[in-house]
User: Which sequence fits this backbone?
């Protein structure tokens, strides 16, 4: 199911329902402010380190059970440059193209975008996903290295990443295959900011229901890998972090709508 290039105005509020049966149940798509969202049902999963490969980082451990207790909507793709520019009136991205993901946006910039979008929509429902929501959505029921399975050789069907010679810039969203829950580019293209503060030891004390991350910190978490990264660094469990003011040409964002 390909991402449509004929998005409604980012200031419009419309709803559309589409049935998708790749994982044996219907997925509901909604369009809020020109951004398409996939409905994610509640459930439990194993979060974090799922293998003993040498590249696994200790911050991904221990693997632990997490339950998401309420449904939510998450962006079908990363926020595009067109969507960002319509809300913010500017485009900070290094290589500009409407349907590429916006980049060179900090965590703080993402919060300003969300604030303005909520005002324009008379809503308080838009936000970044928590780290747990992001991994739950990205895994789409998988317990493997990647959302589709464990074979790095298959990753090029789902992701833009450095091993494939895709370097130089990001790519338009939704040109690769989606995961089983209908989300595009959860691996590669651009990293995605999430809501949580970063603590390398958080998994040792994380609650098993709707974890929100540490209460304070210096760094914020981003997930998913980018067009620069090697395949092994696009694993679903991989965690990276940066200062909330960090801006690079391979970090963007994906939204949640409650």
Assistant:
């Amino acid at each position: 199911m390909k991402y449509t290039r004929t998005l409604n105005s980012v200031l419009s509020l419309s709803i559309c329902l589409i049935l998708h049966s790749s994982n044996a149940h219907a997925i509901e798509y909604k369009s809020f402010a020109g951004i398409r969202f996939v409905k994610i049902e509640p459930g439990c999963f194993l979060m974090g380190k799922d293998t003993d490969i040498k590249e696994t980082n200790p911050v991904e451990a221990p693997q632990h059970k997490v339950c998401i207790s309420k449904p939510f909507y998450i962006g079908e793709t990363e926020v595009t440059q067109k969507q960002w520019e319509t809300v913010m009136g500017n485009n900070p991205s290094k290589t500009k193209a409407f349907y590429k993901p916006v980049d060179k946006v900090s965590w703080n910039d993402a919060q300003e975008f969300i604030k303005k979008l909520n005002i324009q929509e008379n809503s308080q429902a838009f936000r970044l996903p928590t780290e747990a929501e992001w991994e739950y959505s990205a895994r789409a029921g998988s317990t493997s290295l990647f959302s589709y399975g464990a074979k790095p050789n298959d990753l090029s069907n789902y992701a833009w990443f450095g091993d494939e010679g895709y370097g130089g810039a990001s790519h338009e969203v939704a040109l690769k295959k989606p995961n089983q829950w209908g989300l595009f580019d959860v691996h590669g293209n651009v990293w995605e900011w999430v809501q949580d503060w970063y603590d390398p030891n958080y998994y040792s004390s994380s609650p098993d229901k709707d974890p929100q991350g540490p209460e304070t910190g210096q760094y914020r978490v981003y997930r998913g890998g980018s067009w620069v990264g090697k395949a092994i660094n696009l694993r679903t469990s991989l965690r990276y972090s940066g200062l909330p003011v960090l801006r690079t040409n391979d970090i963007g964002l994906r939204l949640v709508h409650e």
In short: The longest strand covers residues 191-197.
